[in-house]
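Final report, section 2: Outcomes. Of the targets proposed, Glycoside hydrolase family 65 protein is the one most frequently requested by collaborating groups, and we therefore present its record in full.
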Amino acid sequence: MKKIIVFLFIALNLITQAQEKDWVLTTGKVEAYTGIVAANGRIGILPEDIPFQTKSIILNNVYEKESELGVSRIISGMNFANLDIFIDGEKITEQNVSDWKQSLNMKMAAFETSFTFKDKAKITYSIYALRNIQYAGYIDIKVLPLKNIKIKATGKISTPEEFIKPLSTFRILKDNEVTMPILQTVAKSKFGKHTIGTSATFVWHAINSGREEQRPHLTHDIVSNYENHLSFEKELKKNETYEFAWTGAECSTQDFEDPQTESERFVIFNLLTPRNDLIDQHKKLWDDLWQGDIIIEGDVQSQLDVRLALYHLYAFSRGDSNLSISPMGLSSQNYNGHIFWDTELWMFPPLLMLNQDIARSLVNYRSDRINKAKEKAINFGYKGAMFPWESDDTGEEATPAWALTGTFEHHITADVAIAFWNYYRVTQNKEWLITRGYPMLKEIADYWVSRSVLNADGSYSIKNVVGANEFAPNVDDNAFTNGSAITALKFATEAAMEVGEIPNPEWGNLASKIKIHKFPDGTTMEHSKYAGEIIKQADVNLLSYPLNVISDEETIKKDLKYYEPKLADEGPAMGQSVFAVLYAKLGNAKEAYRLFKRSYEPNKRPPFGALAEAATSNNPYFATGAGGMLQVVLFGFGGLDITNDGIVQKNAILPKEWKSLTLKGIGPERKTFVITE
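The predicted structure is given below as tokens.
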């Protein structure tokens, strides 16, 4: 009987290890380091490879002008996630630790760091951007003394220098016998648009946190108005584990009338909620997210790469927010945190397959800003709704004026319409279609009617645009712009009939007559004057996938053969993803797998594999590229397709490098699709 128990234990342990290797990314000390963000759709916390240090905290949908004459930029908020830890009077630094290890557990969305400080202590801490308390972070710390030691912990709120009028305080709030120590800083953003309130405190797990007499003595130190510190000291005995946490919350006037007080309430909630309850709620919400998952058997590295991509799309979004995702998510201020076509065309389709709640938030973000899009159309002499190339909280154009994309990259408006109709096709949410979906599709179709120009031969052109291939500005009849407009017009017609309206006959007439230019051999031209130049994006090939404007196999192959060699090395990763999907749909698993790997492997940055935008850049995490590689798996190898009958599977194909592919939690019915050899 004892042998059976031992064998059973070994088997369970092996299963646990096997599962962990598919979910956990781990590194030791490295020279080149790109961090991986812990995020919950509201805040993003970016750790560093220095003990107890984080690089930044990004606040979703909170914008301030980047400069006095500049456009908006997402705010890098006050950093409440840094601590200084001293043992026997010596500060822990990267120079005096050993056995350094950092891990991202994607399943639990926990970022863990562990190390040994000299011969005195083993320390582990985990960073959570709490999914349940969406404006808060939580750093859970465990110290194992290797001898008797004295520890000093200092939690900090560090305010960026560009903030104005910071007020740093420490107060002990009290209700009956419950006391609540609150470190706090309140300040104005760079030009005074927002008030930001940040609160933080220590949590001691082994005692009743509300009993002041049981706590270590707290010392408050305002180093400056921009540096607010709270400390305690404790003598620890050898081999007696000591556990505590540091928790902070950050709120702004973008979301709250009184961000100062709200930040206090979140911290008090975390202080007085037992740790296991708080973290278990966070884990449960991530378990719910992972009901939509991709499982690859036989290729651990591909499994980790795909999971990391999906982890980031989940971490950067929420189903309850009606917010969208910027190209770099909540990892940095790159691209100013603005919303582009990246969401609708690249990130939205995988999320639509795997999590319709998040998908609804992404489309509702646009619906909430339709009035600004209608104003923009009027301002430029058009009808309907015209969406900005870069969008922020206002819904107005947020692209820097010097960038031609902001004035001329108009396919974004069609991309929005395509996402809207696909959301309805998957969810069949008729009420949403009536209240949000069709009103949007109608306005966008009217825009394209007013935007198109009649030619002498009866065809229509869309002139003076920047297409997906941004290397060719101010061209006529860009292939993807025209193809996306055709698709949006057709979808508007279908949506009208679905809600019992009579579609505008101009929509269908225009959709059938918009020009797509061809070379003499039938290869699709990137625009009316295209002569074989290097391209930034797989512009033409998007007409085959996802638009299906070009569906005959001969033309698809011609376009693939012609444009793949023309894709620039410095172009973003998604072009290779499009090629990979198309080869998979053509039944060529070898080419599809080659291009799948090429779509992201050159862009991976050590030590965790964060994606940069291009092989030649270093601006992770590129959520757009994650969306592209996930589309290869779902719509290429997995054979999924969005139709008026919902999600169907057509011609799935498996690379020889994989034993099986399982797509779990697909669509509202949470279906599972398994592709095997």
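The first strand starts at residue 24 and ends at 27.
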